[in-house]
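tool_call: predict_structure(chain=1)
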Amino acid sequence: MASHYEAPIRRPLVLGEKNYHDITVDVAAPVEGKANKSWWIVFTIALVAFLWGIGCIVYTVSTGIGVWGLNKTVGWAWDITNFVWWVGIGHAGTLISAVLLLFRQKWRMAINRSAEAMTIFSVVQAGLFPIIHMGRPWLAYWVLPIPNQFGSLWVNFNSPLLWDVFAISTYLSVSLVFWWTGLLPDFAMIRDRAVTPFTKRIYSILSFGWSGRAKDWQRFEEVSLVLAGLATPLVLSVHTIVSFDFATSVIPGWHTTIFPPYFVAGAVFSGFAMVNTLLIVMRKVSNLESYITIQHIELMNIVIMVTGSIVGVAYITELFIAWYSGVEYEQYAFLNRATGPYAWAYWAMMTCNVFSPQFMWFKKLRTSIMFSFAISIVVNIGMWFERFVIIVTSLHRDYLPSSWTMFSPTFVDIGIFIGTIGFFFVLFLLYARTFPVIAQAEVKSILKGSGEKYKKLRAAHGDDVKHYDAVVAPKVKTVKATPASVSGLLDGEGQKEKAENLLSKLGSFDADAETADNLKKISGVGPVMEQKLHQLGIYTFAQVSKMDDATYDLLDDIIGEFPGRAKRDDWAGQASKLKNN
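tool_result:
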């Protein structure tokens, strides 16, 4: 059975001594616990940016898009730059989830959920810009070929604006269904662990009646494969359609057949960079270092390096074709980009997109968390400059020198863009507090093959080792413990009083007359939790079996970790059965 498991040389994808229950607890913790200080700080900043953007949008709609820095030559510079940038960021989610699923890549398991959410939220931001640019967003439904009060008003299918509407709506709908389907087992997990009836009811609705039967899993696998098959062409088609906005024109610097693959590679490039940015933050804020490992970060850095190199080849190809064509307008367009008034943007693009990813050739750098985080931000800045350079430098100096002009954004342009960034992070932070950020069922499916614990077992005992935890009663030192003598957990008079109150209800443990039980037999009690219970003077199943709602709350108040766990896992009921056995 050696072929059933990964080769020992492969690094584990799940670190630590994790078992199935640990994965459930760790994934549910950010949803069930309280938000920490870091989350509130980031959320407040994002909310302020979002509200600023809302104010700029309201000002634009009420006044007109003349408040933007537009002119006769550069007609849609800032907003189409942001539109294409957000669409590009949304690409990596579908790639990770769909393409890597079809290729059976195990390393997608811990990162696909956040990548899918990033896709949904970034496409929402991208969809805002065409709607605002219409000038009358309340008539946005006119772009859809549906009957309306004016009769059958059919849209202009030759319009690139319409292509964007169909690309965005198709991409959003398929990605949303794919994302939600993958969430069903996790919603059911939160539902089954819910303490309050309201929470249980909400997650029951969200889980669509998931029961975990074999039939559910069969349908889940089938639907996932079908949606992956549908979503994979979208990775190529959506940004190809976006590139047609430019490639079908006759503007120098745009009218080129390399745009579709060039845009797709750039979208994957920027998308993976944003996934890296988000996951490096999430693994720290949500304590998910055991599941989002250095191995995951390194593999994404390799993709960034490869796609960045493809983008660099595309830049060189553009320059070569412009020279080889012999068309003076085309040659001037690229010369103007590199040496004209916007040369600073061009060289910022080249530095960020072509040169910075090449550092990832060095293993020490691509496995560095801080360096990976910095490069991911640099890449996203560079990809924004790429869209800015393509659009502005090709428009501000066209065929007629008499129409040449410079473009500069107004505070409204900048405010709307910052608002979409704030909106994106508001959505992502709320998602991280309400939805499981890791697909726990999928991580469990690779635990025995890629988990560090099981790799060590196979290294020590071979591939035929039994993958279960043998329960051995520990030797407990018979030392009489009282709350007043314990330090650390019970520092402070208030804590000691709570512990004494807890023991008055559960009964004290006499080390001379009683034998301590192995509390780790209770589901939800690990070595660390058992040690804390010992500090409180709780050593036996008889004590735990006396717990009720009041003592559960008191225990949570003293320990301060994973509130509701004891009640949710029914420690008292488990202890009663173990005591009787």
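agent: Confidence is low (pLDDT under 50) at residues 470-487. Proceeding to next step.
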